[in-house]
Specification:
The complex is a heterotrimer of chains A (about 120), B (about 500) and C (about 625).
Chain A (H helix, E strand, L loop, with lengths): L14 H21 L3 H26 L5 H31 L18
Helix pairs in contact in A: 1-2, 2-3
Chain B lengths: L5 H14 L4 H31 L7 E9 L4 E7 L1 H20 L7 H20 L3 H22 L4 H30 L6 H6 L4 H18 L8 H8 L2 H26 L1 H28 L3 H21 L3 H32 L10 H4 L1 H14 L6 H14 L4 H29 L16 H19 L2 H19 L1
Antiparallel strand pairs in B: 1-2
Helix pairs in contact in B: 1-2, 1-4, 2-3, 3-4, 3-10, 3-13, 3-18, 4-5, 4-10, 5-6, 5-10, 6-8, 6-9, 8-10, 8-11, 9-10, 9-12, 10-12, 10-13, 10-19, 11-12, 11-17, 12-13, 12-17, 13-15, 13-16, 13-18, 13-19, 15-17, 15-18, 16-17, 16-18
Chain C lengths: L3 H18 L5 H29 L9 E10 L5 E8 L1 H24 L6 H19 L4 H19 L6 H32 L4 H4 L14 E2 L2 E2 H16 L8 H4 L5 H10 L4 H8 L1 H7 L1 H22 L5 H21 L9 H31 L15 H15 L5 H16 L1 H26 L15 H16 L5 H4 L13 H22 L5 H8 L1 H8 L4 H47 L7 H21 L1
Antiparallel strand pairs in C: 1-2, 3-4
Helix pairs in contact in C: 1-2, 1-4, 2-3, 2-4, 3-4, 3-10, 3-15, 3-19, 4-5, 5-6, 6-8, 8-11, 8-13, 10-15, 13-14, 13-18, 14-15, 14-17, 14-18, 15-16, 15-17, 15-19, 16-17, 16-18, 16-19, 17-18, 17-21, 18-21, 22-23
The chains are: A mainly alpha (about 120), B mainly alpha (about 500), C mainly alpha (about 625).
């Protein structure tokens, strides 16, 4: 796995380096998504995950299917979709903030069945 | 689409018209004119049917129409009627008509009430005209669902509980039914879900042995088969007047009709072998329902248990598997439908005035509400089987028919079922004596007013129907009788 | 003789009209309409009787005539209910009896019920009853009889409960209906059994004497008893219920809560003899195929007769006394049928029973109408509040006395002839039974004269206003019925009614007649000594036989037994547990399914926390575990 570094000498950044980056980003995103309580942080984590995927698309396209363009376009699509998604999400977050005066996920239990229900 | 589908179309158009209705008068006008139209149309269809038969058309089902609906699964929309469907359609039209008038002042949300009411009618009419298992099942489900809302919103007492219980139990029944129907389709090997086509095929015995109980029980739940009857007391007690009428009057008949048309007709061998199990259950229903009714204090509970007893008699007679008893079963469906609707209508009207249904809190109402009182006595006499009113003919046909089965088992059951007529007399007279006769219990009841014109229309129509069926039973029993022949032939096969 | 159909249609029409107009007409108009219709019906019945008895006897015996018949409902190819009109000697006789008594009651009620609330309703119910009773007697088949049998029961229920605000009347009507309903269940099952084996409901076929009809019953037994005995016995249970035979008699005394004219019509003259009529109608079947049931009928009749006569001796309510006397007299009729043979002199019992039915209808109606007249005057049923009324109510007094003499069996009043024939037939059957019946006849004389003296003689009771004779509308029927009672005994009854249709000449058996008249006179004398003047002897006797007296006053506690059965057993031990079982076992099981489902859902709902992060964590872990599994296995 660590032969990634040996390829630096050739002057080309090896594919594995990109993949390593996206891997770190992806898991950082997942970790953030699971552990953070703030909606904004969760949103940012989701962005990280998406961006990791984007990087993968581009990298695979560039290294494995040079000359094809599908990967690039897919990355562009994802960016567009994630922009929309972020816009909607931010709108929801703002609404939540207006109602609850915080953006903590734990305080969102309006629709939850009350515990005492038999 | 042939003209039979108009039965479904009229309630549908009523629903559309109701959407645009603005006030109570318009709503009532739409509901009343629609139901009158249905009544007239049923009369017309009956007339056409009778003339067609008189002209020598001996086909099993008349006015058939068949439209492919979903070819891959051989699902067709197919309709057709025989004498039994005619009887049921007449019953439905009368009950829908009187139900509309009984809910003339329904409150709150009259528009929504009638919307659901019409949807319910679509289901019921559709069920009786379909001869395709799938169409039948679909209409069956259409008839069940509105019930939940009708009871849950417009009911009284523990209405949410009752609505939930009724819907869940009936849904449970229809789950069994679904399996049964698919099983019948699969094992019969027919390339169609049409009942008449399947009847030509032979379902393997081993399959029949598990499909028959499923189907019979599935329909039996709706027909208040012991021990699946307990939705009936709670459901009927909580339902609004017109819904009780339609439910006990017509919907419970879906059970008997279905058990007869699907379970008995398509699986005669299993019916023959397994009838004894269900005969015992229905025998219990008959006696048990009657005894339970004796000690109830809520008018609607009394009538609900009485329905368990009377509907038990329907399934009982169907299981006797001879022509006479089956004729009796269909007539009992008609008779019970009419008189139980009359009962529920009257109970609703009395409750609307006294605001109680407990017999211990009422008394001497005959003096204050003579019209309702006399009608209640007539309903009671019909229920305990007075000759000249509908109950007598139906019960006697059942007993005479059942008695033709020679062995001790059938005889003993017939005699114990016949004994229920004595118990019926006990609980009916107890109620009549308690609430109508005697001294006025509650001084506030002194200044109650008697029935209004719309209530009178509803009650008088039902009484006329009961008297007509009871005093001139021959034509309707002939109508039913001739349609039974294919079923009985199938059973004898 | 198609016009006989009118005899049925007119009262029905009257019922429908009066029932529908309710209280929209003036009371008198309704009463007059009802009565007018009944006059027509009565005239038609008389005409029918005249025409029948003058033309039907062609071959030396009276023929059965089916005047009208139509199919009403069809059960199987051979079992179908027809509605029709059958004319034969007994049905024609009953037509005359019923329409006469009914007409008298209609007229009488114009006075008696004057000013009552619900006058139209009363006449509507009377018409309904008359219709049903007439339909019963002209029935061409056993199921038609059952139909009208139920209808008379219902009209009796409605009429007993006429004063529906009175709790006793309501309870009595309920009791009457349920007890007879219970008996009718026997009737129904009997019909089912009989019709299953004979394949017919029709009286004509059943009583034709054609043995092939009963071929399938030979050798068929159930629990050691032949199937015909079962059938006929069960059918008799129905008759016993309507005719108040022991132990199904309990409803009749209570039925006296109804208006008195109703008691006269239904509970004395017509409906209560329906059981007798039923046995008479099926007599050939009873006689040939189940003679042991017929003998049972005789003994049951005798027991009932004795039992009711004893109770009648101590009752103080005049209508109750008359009610028990009715039960006792119906017992006589049953005995007459039970001991009878077939045809000619052997058929004496049958003829006598029918004769007694006719004369009894007249004088018992007279007694009841007289009692009504007395009640109208003193406003009470209690004998203790009466006494010395003979001066105030001469017409009532004389007619009552005539009826008492008739029922006691003193010649030349009608009761003597009919009862004497029954006794003669009974002596031929069994001297012991004959002796017992003579004794009961004596008891009858005793309690009737106890009643008579208690009402019309003895100490005059103080009343708020002096009792007065009843109005003409009430007096007229009394006079008419008294006249009939005086002369009816001379009708050559055997010329008309016998069980084989051939006329039979009655001859008085002087020995039997002498004995019965002697016994009656002795008992009348006894009653005269005890009750004519105020006397201490009755009280002393009551204390000496305290146990018997108390038991008889309480009608031998039969009502208590019934109450125990209905209240304690049916209500508390059957219905209540069943209702409890339904709610707490069956329904609880259904609710149990629901709550088990809910419990399970509560248990597993923690998984469905709604916490997306949690879901993501689980998904991740799941993915890792699956990946691990895929890689390593």
């Amino acid at each position: 796995m660590f032969d990634v570094f040996s390829n630096f000498s050739s002057g080309i950044i090896p594919m594995e380096a990109y993949l390593l980056l996206s891997l770190v980003m992806f898991f950082a995103g997942i970790y953030g998504f699971i552990s953070r309580k703030s909606l904004l942080m969760i949103l940012i984590s989701i962005e990280l995950i998406l961006n990791a995927a984007d990087i993968n698309f581009v990298v695979f396209n560039r290294y494995l299917y040079a000359g094809h363009m599908e990967g690039f376009f897919f990355a562009l699509f994802t960016i567009a979709v994630s922009a929309c998604e972020t816009a909607v999400a931010i709108a929801i977050v703002i609404n939540i903030y207006r109602n609850l005066h915080n953006v903590n996920v734990d305080s969102l239990h309006e629709l939850h069945e009350p515990e005492s229900e038999q | 689409m042939n003209f039979l589908s108009i039965f479904v179309l009229i309630p549908f158009l009523m629903m559309v018209a109701l959407l645009f209705a603005k006030n109570r008068n318009q709503i009532n006008f739409i509901a009343a004119s629609g139901s009158i139209l249905l009544l007239i149309f049923t009369g017309l269809v009956t007339y056409l049917f009778v003339t067609e038969r008189a002209a020598g058309n001996v086909a099993e089902m008349l006015f058939r129409a068949d439209t492919v609906w979903y070819a891959p699964f051989n699902i067709h929309y197919s309709v057709g009627i025989d004498g039994i469907s005619i009887a049921m359609l007449l019953l439905t039209s009368i009950i829908v008509f009187t139900g509309v008038f009984a809910s003339w002042r329904i409150d709150p949300l009259p528009k929504e009430f009638f919307l659901w009411f019409c949807l319910l009618s679509i289901g019921v009419y559709g069920f009786f005209i379909s001869i395709d298992l799938f169409t039948m099942f679909m209409y069956y489900e259409i008839a069940l669902i509105p019930m939940y809302l009708l009871i849950g919103i417009w009911g009284t007492g523990k209405k949410e509980y009752a609505a939930m219980k009724l819907t869940l139990m009936l849904m449970g029944g229809s789950a069994l039914l679904m399996v049964g129907i698919l099983g019948i389709y699969y094992f019969s090997g027919a390339q169609s879900m049409n009942i008449l086509d399947i009847a030509q095929k032979h379902i393997p015995l081993s399959a029949q042995y598990f499909l028959f109980p499923l189907t019979f029980m599935g329909f039996g739940v709706l027909g208040a088969l012991f021990p699946f009857h307990t939705w009936s007391p709670d459901g009927h007690a909580s339902a609004p007047t017109a819904v009780s009428m339609l439910h006990a009057g017509v919907l419970m008949k879906l059970g008997g009709y279905g058990a007869f048309r699907v379970a008995m007709y398509l699986m005669p061998e299993a019916a023959h072998e397994m009838a004894w199990i269900f005969l015992i259950l229905t025998g219990i229903s008959v006696v048990y329902g009657a005894f339970s009714a004796v000690v109830q204090t809520d008018l609607k509970y009394i009538n609900a248990y009485s329905s368990v007893s009377h509907c038990g008699l329907v399934l009982f007679a169907i299981l006797m598997q001879n022509e006479t008893a089956m004729t009796g079963a269909i007539m009992q469906m008609l008779s019970h439908g009419l008189m139980t609707a009359l009962f529920f209508a009257l109970i609703g009207m009395i409750y609307g005035r006294t605001h109680t249904r407990l017999i211990t809190e009422m008394g001497g109402l005959m003096k204050i509400l003579p019209f309702l009182g006399v009608s209640y006595v007539i309903a009671g006499l019909a229920s305990l089987g007075l000759p000249g009113l509908s109950g007598f003919v139906a019960e006697m046909t059942i007993f005479v028919g059942s008695f033709q089965e020679v062995d001790t088992f059938h005889r003993a059951l017939t005699i114990s079922a016949a004994a229920s007529i004595v118990i019926t007399a006990v609980y009916i007279l107890r109620v009549v004596g308690k609430i109508l006769y005697g001294k006025v219990q509650n001084p506030h009841h002194e200044d109650l007013s008697d029935a209004t014109w719309w209530e009178r229309i509803s009650v008088v129509t039902l009484i006329i129907a009961i008297v007509a069926l009871g005093s001139l039973p021959l034509w309707i029993s002939n109508l039913i009788h001739e349609s039974l022949t294919p079923v009985v032939n199938n059973l004898m096969r | 003789m198609q016009y006989t159909l009118l005899i049925l249609i007119l009262p029905l029409l009257s019922f429908v009209i009066l029932g529908l107009v309710d209280s929209k007409w003036k009371a008198q108009v309704a009463g007059t309409l009802g009565t007018a219709i009944l006059v027509t019906v009565t005239l038609l019945s008389y005409y029918t009787a005249w025409e029948y008895f003058s033309t039907a006897n062609i071959t030396g015996s009276y023929q059965r005539i089916i005047a009208f018949e139509t199919e009403w409902v069809r059960f199987t190819d051979y079992l179908h209910i027809n509605l029709g009109i059958l004319l034969d000697p007994i049905s024609v006789m009953m037509l005359v009896v019923i329409s006469t008594v009914s007409l008298m009651v209609h007229i009488y009620s114009l006075g008696y019920m004057h000013g009552e609330k619900g006058f139209e309703r009363y006449y509507a119910f009377l018409s309904l009853f008359t219709f049903s009773m007439l339909g019963l007697v002209v029935a061409t088949n056993i199921f038609q009889m059952y139909i009208f049998w139920e209808l008379v029961g219902a009209s009796s229920y409605l009429l007993i409960g006429f004063y529906y605000t009175k709790p006793e009347a309501v309870a009595a009507s309920k009791k009457a209906f349920i007890v007879t309903r219970f008996a009718d269940l026997g009737f129904l099952i009997g019909i089912l059994v009989l019709s299953y084996y004979t394949k017919t409901f029709d009286f004509g076929i059943l009583t034709s004497g054609n043995a092939s009809v009963f071929a399938s019953t030979t050798g068929v037994t159930y629990m050691g008893i032949s199937v015909m005995s079962w059938a006929m016995g069960l059918i008799f249970v129905g008759g016993a219920g309507k005719s108040a035979m022991f132990p199904l008699h309990i409803w009749l005394p209570d039925a006296m809560e109804g208006p008195t004219p109703v008691s006269a019509l239904i509970h004395a003259a017509t409906m209560v003899v329906a059981g007798v009529y039923l046995v008479a109608r099926l007599f050939p079947v009873y006689y040939v195929y189940s003679p042991e049931v017929l003998h049972g009928v005789a003994y049951l009749g005798a027991i009932t007769s004795l039992f009711a006569a004893i109770i009648a001796c101590v009752q103080t309510d005049i209508k109750r006394v008359l009610a028990f006397s009715t039960i006792s007299q119906i017992g006589f009729m049953m005995v007459g049928l039970g001991v009878s043979g077939m045809g000619g002199h052997h058929g004496l019992g049958y003829m006598a029973s029918m004769f007694h039915l006719t004369t009894h209808a007249m004088f018992k109606a007279l007694l009841f109408l007289g009692a009504g007249s007395i009640i109208h005057a003193v406003h009470s049923n209690e004998m203790s509040l009466m006494g010395g009324l003979r001066k105030h109510m001469p017409i009532t007094h004389i007619s009552f006395l005539i009826a008492c003499l008739a029922i006691a069996g003193i010649p030349p009043f009608s009761g003597f002839f009919s009862k004497d024939e029954i006794l003669a037939a009974t002596f031929e059957f069994s001297p012991y039974l004959g002796a017992a019946m003579s004794f009961i006849a004596g008891l009858t004389a005793f309690y009737m004269f106890r009643l008579y003296y208690g009402i019309f003689w003895g100490v005059e009771h103080k009343h708020a206003h002096t009792p007065h004779e009843s109005p003409l509308a009430m007096a007229l029927p009394l006079i008419f019925l008294a006249t009939v009672t005086v002369f009816a005994g001379f009708i050559p009854f055997g010329e008309f009614v016998t069980n084989d249709g051939a006329p039979y000449e009655i001859e008085l058996n002087m020995l039997v007649a002498g004995i019965s008249v002697g016994v009656a006179l002795v008992f009348i004398l006894l009653a005269t000594i005890l009750y004519r003047k105020e006397s201490k002897i009755p009280t002393q006797l009551a204390t000496t036989f305290a146990g018997l007296h108390a038991a008889a006053s309480h009608r031998f506690y039969i009502d208590e037994v019934y109450l125990f059965i209905t209240k304690k057993i049916v209500f508390n031990l059957v219905s209540t547990p069943i209702a409890w079982f339904d709610r707490h076992v069956i329904d609880a099981t259904m609710d149990g399914f629901a709550s088990i489902t809910q419990r399970i859902s509560v248990l597993i709902k923690g998984l469905q926390s709604g916490d997306v992060q949690n879901y993501a964590y689980i998904i991740l872990m799941g993915a890792l575990v699956i990946a691990g599994l895929v890689i390593y296995f």
